[in-house]
Amino acid sequence: MASIGHVAVGMAAARAWVGNDASRARLVRVMLAFSALSMLPDADVIAFPLGIPYSAPWGHRGATHSFVFALWLTAVIVAIARRAGAPPLRTFVCVALVAVSHGLLDILTDGGLGCALLWPFSNARIFAPVTPIPVAPIGAYMFSGRGLYVVMFELLFFAPFFLYATFPRKKRLVESTR
Fold first, then answer.
1. Residue 172 domain flag
2. CA atoms within 13 A on the CB side of 72
3. Deepest of 7, 53, 57, 76, by most Cβ within 10 A of its Cβ?
């Protein structure tokens, strides 16, 4: 994926997490945080310059795309958020959905080696039975015709998430108790 879909999921989860009463500045901060979370598993691309093979457990779409990694990441973030006074259940649900969604979205792509969703129990790379999302070219190839095609596809495919995240909402009226 070109990360556009991951960002869209992160933005939508952020909107659900803050609700309709947040200031625009707070909403933007939370959207940035959830978008960063949604793309965090792809930090494993550092494996390429380090010489770690793509197919290795710590290669691209390996361990960092697994359910275990997503749940570990969720536990860490919920612990930090709880200390900051965030609602624990809502935080757990939104963070877990975003963290788990990365690997699930990547198995829907039509290229690469699949994702090690079941790591550390299995290093097998998994694809979904249907792969409707075109895989994005890596690096400078992203600026090719294929890269432009993937970007346009993801903008259309994930438009409902972007609309949900950014569509203006009316603030709830709170009755005063005077």
1. no
2. 11
3. 7
Q: Which pTM value belongs to this model?
A: 0.90
Q: What is the pLDDT of residues 142-178, one digit of tens each?
A: 899 999 999 999 999 999 999 999 998 776 655 555 5
Give me the pLDDT at residue 174, please: 55
CA 79/CA 162 separation, integer angstroms: 28
Residue 107 located in a structural domain: yes
Residue type, 155: L
Domain that holds residue 145: 4-166
Are 59 and 53 in contact, with CB atoms under 8 Å apart? yes
Please name the helix (run of DSSP H) or strand (run of DSSP E) that holds residue 9, with its range, or none. helix 4-18
- Give the Å distances, CA to CA, from 140 to 42, 63, 114, 145, 166: 16, 25, 22, 11, 30
